[in-house]
Amino acid sequence: MAFEHETVSRVERYEGAIFTVFTDDVTMSDGSTADRDVVENRGAVVVVALDSDDRVVLIKQYRHAVRQRLWELPAGLRDVEGEDEAVTAARELAEEADLTAGRIEPLIDLHTSPGFSDEWVRVFLARDLTPVPEADRHARTAEEADLEVRRVALDEAVAMVFRGEITNAAAVAGILAASRARDSGWTLLPAA
Question: Has this prediction a pTM greater than 0.85?
Answer without folding.
Answer: yes
